[in-house]
Design a protein that fits this description.
- By secondary structure, this protein is an alpha/beta fold.
- It has helices at residues 32-43, 63-77, 96-104, 117-124, 128-141, 160-169, 195-211, 219-230, 277-281, 284-299, 306-309, 314-320, 332-350, 371-375, and strands at residues 3-7, 50-54, 84-88, 109-112, 146-152, 174-178, 245-248, 253-255, 269-270.
- Helices cover 41% and strands 11% of the residues.
- It has a nine-stranded mixed sheet.
- The chain starts with a strand and ends with a helix.
- It binds iron/sulfur cluster (SF4) (2 copies).
- One iron/sulfur cluster binds at residues 300, 303, 305-306, 309, 311-312, 328-329, 332, 335-336.
Length: 377
């Protein structure tokens, strides 16, 4: 995993998705001076390539002028670290001018849609679908690359076929996200997907994916296959994320990840003080995350998948136990289910009982590709 800094210009968001845990109505807006401090802080912090992701809340609330200043500040003053950028947005506030600016920096945009309009708007609120699609058109007209995250909830899982077909028929690649319980929510489990449901969903999507390999990309399945193949996690969920990811809140506070932004007990320092790595290591959240890592080393040590799972996401684990270290990522069951199934299929394919999706000499028919086709993708 490369060094990843998430920039959270605000936790405010014009949308009001039912299960969202990362927006706050009165959140302040990041001033450009904070970006100047990010630059000064990072100049002497680590000597390796950096990816910046603008996240929120809704990061486009910061407006064109903010990005018009922030992007050159980061790109030019930190050019020695070859900065790459990404943005996660609902696209409602995307204008052609902003889209052209983002395209100039080759910024891939992640957005969110939960499936067909009715279902999406039931979960994400009235008119969400139309407003996001309007932004999507502006993005495409200006050569921005957009991919969608689809949140599956305890409700929408009932419509998984409909949701998959929606993405397939509209030519949209898919990254899925299980609705999570939140540390902040009074009713944290309401929309959350159970680990068993999530495991079954991953297997369902694996099969659909193999049936439509040349028509769609399902990024989570790609990542899981790649992790199993290389024996190393390839996304933050499946590595020890805490040394390689930070999030900067609107006031310059430094957190272990965007999921903790806005919670004072998770502040490790502030970019305005240009803290060294040692300073951050002495903060309470850092120490807490190290304890989580040790907990994983101990509690997952007999698991076959520990090398490329690493206990899953610490935030998920802490959200489940109200901020205490009392278990690993509750999706452990889902991870084991999909890791086991892919490993089983890969072994079978390697032993030669299933083809890799090439034409069969006997019948001339194209057989269904197996998971090895995804592993070597
Ligand atoms: S806490 Fe979870 S979401 Fe955040 S960086 Fe770590 S694994 Fe990723
Ligand atoms: S699958 Fe479960 S037990 Fe295995 S490493 Fe991941 S969280 Fe730990």
């Amino acid at each position: 995993m490369a060094f990843h800094v998430m920039l959270i210009p605000t936790l405010g968001c014009p949308s009001n998705c039912n299960y969202c845990w990362s927006s706050e109505e009165d959140s302040p807006m990041m001033k450009i001076e904070i970006i100047e401090d990010v630059v000064e802080w990072l100049k002497n912090f680590r000597n390796e390539p950096i990816t910046f992701t603008f996240h929120g809340g809704e990061p486009l609330l910061a407006g064109y002028d903010f990005y018009n200043k922030a992007l050159p500040l980061l790109a030019e003053n930190l050019s020695q670290f070859k900065p790459a950028f990404a943005l996660q947005s609902n696209l409602w506030l995307l204008t052609p001018e902003l889209a052209r600016l983002l395209a100039e920096y080759s910024i891939p945009v992640g957005s969110s849609l939960d499936g067909p309009e009715d279902l999406n708007d039931l979960q994400r609120g009235k008119d969400y679908y139309q407003r996001t699609m309007k932004g999507y058109k502006i993005a495409r007209d200006n050569d921005l690359q957009v991919s969608f995250i689809c949140t599956f909830t305890s409700y929408s899982i009932e419509f998984k076929e409909e949701i998959f077909n929606f993405f397939l028929e509209n030519g949209l690649d898919l990254k899925l996200h299980p609705a999570l319980p939140s540390i902040r929510d009074e009713n944290p489990e309401k929309w959350a997907l159970s680990p068993e449901e999530y495991g079954e969903l991953l297997i369902y999507l694996l099969d659909e994916y193999l049936d439509h390999l040349d028509q769609i990309e399902i990024k989570n399945i790609d990542h899981i296959c790649k992790s199993i193949f290389t024996r190393r996690g390839t996304v933050c969920t499946f590595v020890d994320c805490m040394d390689d990811t930070y999030a900067i809140g609107p006031d310059g506070s430094i957190y272990p990840c965007y999921r903790f932004v806005g919670m004072p007990e998770w502040v490790m320092g502030n970019v305005q003080d240009h803290p060294s790595r040692e300073d951050l290591e002495n903060s309470a959240p850092w120490k807490f995350m190290q304890q989580y890592k040790q907990y994983v080393d101990e509690n997952c040590k007999r698991c076959t998948y520990i090398k490329f799972c690493r206990g899953g996401c610490p935030y998920n684990a802490l959200a489940k136990s109200e901020g205490k270290i009392d278990g690993v990522d509750p999706h452990c069951t889902a991870y084991k289910t999909i890791f086991k199934e892919i490993t089983r299929r890969a072994t079978k394919e390697m032993l030669g009982s299933v083809s890799f999706g090439v034409d069969s000499e006997d019948t001339g028919k194209k057989s269904k590709p197996g998971v090895m086709a995804l592993m070597i993708k």
